[in-house]
Fold:
Amino acid sequence: MKILPLILLILLCGASVEAAVPKEKAPTSVEERRIRSAIEEQYNQIQKEGDQLKVEKMQLKTLQQEVDKKLVRMQNLRQELTKLLNRKQAAEGKRVTELSKIYEKMSARKSAELIKNLDPKLAIELLAAMNKKNAGKILDNLDQKTATRLSTGFTEFPVDQSPSY
Structure:
């Protein structure tokens, strides 16, 4: 018994909804049909463009996510490279310190003979890592040209690259 009133209510609501929505009038002239056709074509074109924009927007989001992932990966690689470079520099610094101690234990004349044949940068690093008194003795045993070149290089040695070992 409760189903019958419910069905009547649905039918009445459906009828009132149809009555509330006005139906379109059929076009009365050729010009009106052309205008409606043009409007429909423009509407369809706008719909297509909107759909295309949605697709492109999704593609852009996907590309942005890929770029973000690659950027994070590159930053991680950069950090890893920085750590490796720091470790390499620390190891090199340790070896330069050890080598400078070896040169300090030699006679100043023998150390001078060896240092004059080294790469100037390495020679400067060795002298910088040595006791200043011993470095002075070694420079004293070098020929004037080499001693001047190494002294000049020592004064131009960048502070941030100075041996911290």
Notes: The two ends are 98 Å apart (CA to CA). The chain is about 80% helix and 0% strand. Residues 30-105 form the longest helix (76 residues).
